[in-house]
Amino acid sequence: MTVARSAESVNAVIKAYDIRGVVADQLDTGFIRDTGAAFARLMRGEGTRRIVIGHDMRASSPELVAAFAEGVLAQGLDVVQIGLASTDELYFASGRLDCPGAMFTASHNPARYNGIKLCRARALPVGQDTGLATIADELIAGVPEYDGEPGAATEVDLLDDYAAFLRDLVDLGSIRPLTVAVDAGNGMGGHTVPAVLGALSQITVVPLYFELDGTFPNHEANPLDPKNLVDLQALVRDSGADIGLAFDGDADRCFVVDELGDPVSPSAITALVAERELAKEPGATIIHNLITSRAVPELVTELGGHPVRSRVGHSFIKQLMASSGAVFGGEHSAHYYFRDFWGADSGMLAALHVLAALGEDKRPVSELMASYTAYAASGEINSTVDDAATRTAAVIDAFAGRAVSVDRLDGVTVQLPAHAWFNLRASNTEPLLRLNVEARSQEEVDVLVTEILRIVRA
């Protein structure tokens, strides 16, 4: 039996979707070793015999991987280590090897953080309700020892197989030559982009911050924050690139910048990829989360597809991908999910679809994407509040006379006349209310944002 831990210390790092915390203070090798043991016990109970492990470029990752592997091996399961990898490469490994996986990364968080994203075989998610709570309970009570033979460890390099697999999913053979500026943010895009795009003769990559460096010396590896796109925007303009791509730290999300240096909404990317997938499979199901632009379900319906609305969060979308048989799913956070990729998310695969669409069209990105951008949006606006429920109720009361409909699938979504809407959601981990607004014009958006924030921040 391993040492028992306090519920407070365990629950501080086991989140709704993953495990994440400050290295040494919250995540030490002992904790990670026991987490590996608890995960191995859970998977062994489901008939698994091996677990594949990958990690990002953070300095703490190799030591934590070694500790996790030790815990897995002690429980009698084998370990397959793929070394440096993006998160979607780990999902590929889980699918290709048909075994559970553990990816060591803290995504875009600062260097002092690390964490683990866990999945079952074929990249099926492990979240709070599908395994993480069980792991937390074992860490609190103490993980029982295994009295059988320990497992065996092997290493394998799957980078080239991952790259070839993605290229086989998207036909880029007849595209026009493209110059593509890529900001890897010193994250794992610097590892995977050369492998995937380097083999395509029609594409010239202009690299930025490809050096793997978990201290993120140039900017945070979080392209969702506009300030972290500034360098890529300048590079696109200065180099005359046809398009810019920005990846987050573990390279599972991809953001697009057009030839003018202007960011392209992930909702527009979702619509573009949905259109391409529906062209291959008419009538298919497309998933979008509830803060994605209404342009997405409208386009899917217009094309004869079946749009399905989801809560925000990868575990919800992955579950819907599996249960509905959807061919594709998109989130406004730039996570893109593909049935052909075991229902998991891959920013690199989404990027290949965008490059294929651009390369098959004579128009620049700005014109190509214009048809997928029917509305103005606020982006996500966060407010620190003491009582999210009270503030949310006050907003609902203020709009009671104008609301066309109100639903509570995730937070509260208020539909207003003339295609305007807003969603207000409380954070699961912080004292924040998250606001998203969409309307026909930016002026309408600004008016609604001002009115709602006046109530939220009163």
From TrEMBL:
GO terms for molecular function: intramolecular phosphotransferase activity; metal ion binding. InterPro entries: A-D-PHexomutase_a/b/a-I, A-D-PHexomutase_a/b/a-I/II/III, A-D-PHexomutase_a/b/a-II, A-D-PHexomutase_a/b/a-III, A-D-PHexomutase_C, A-D-PHexomutase_C_sf, Alpha-D-phosphohexomutase_SF. It comes from Nocardia jinanensis. It comes from the Bacteria. Belongs to the phosphohexose mutase family. Gene3D superfamilies: Alpha-D-Glucose-1,6-Bisphosphate, subunit A, domain 3, Alpha-D-phosphohexomutase, C-terminal domain. Residues 380-453 form the Alpha-D-phosphohexomutase C-terminal domain. PANTHER family: PHOSPHOMANNOMUTASE (PTHR43771). Its cofactor is Mg(2+). This is Phosphomannomutase/phosphoglucomutase. The lineage of its organism: Bacteria, Bacillati, Actinomycetota, Actinomycetes, Mycobacteriales. Signal peptide: none annotated. Residues 14-135, 161-261, 267-374 form the Alpha-D-phosphohexomutase alpha/beta/alpha domain. The keyword Nuclease does not apply. GO terms for biological process: carbohydrate metabolic process. SUPFAM superfamilies: Phosphoglucomutase, C-terminal domain, Phosphoglucomutase, first 3 domains.
